[in-house]
Amino acid sequence: MLKREKKLEREIAERRIRKLLELAEKTKLENYELAKRYVELARKIAMKYRVKIPKELRTFCRKCHYPYRHDRVRVRVRKRRVIVTCLNCGYVRRFPISKRSKSRFLLDRKVEELK
Ligand SMILES: [Zn+2]
What we know:
Layout: H1 6-27, H2 32-48, E1 73-78, E2 81-86, E3 92-96, H3 103-114
Antiparallel strand pairs: 1-2, 2-3
Helix pairs in contact: 1-2
The protein binds zinc ion.
């Protein structure tokens, strides 16, 4: 049997994850169910090939897997934390806001996108 090229497999997996999550973003306003399906496929690929989903692409609910959409999500800032509540299932995520880290930049962008 041929030796598996894990590095290559993972590269391809990552590309597919990116593509699927892009598609989810594009379709989430017209077809929310389909967008959710894209997210689920991306997660399955990530698990199978054990790659991480890049932070900037994690714009979906961890519990119900629906992508965050302005009318289905609530974003609040409280006590130096951003609180994102999924209105589909009620799952709450909290991101700390730290002064130095670059995650703050990502967070600002995320909040901007969700508006
Ligand atoms: Zn949810």
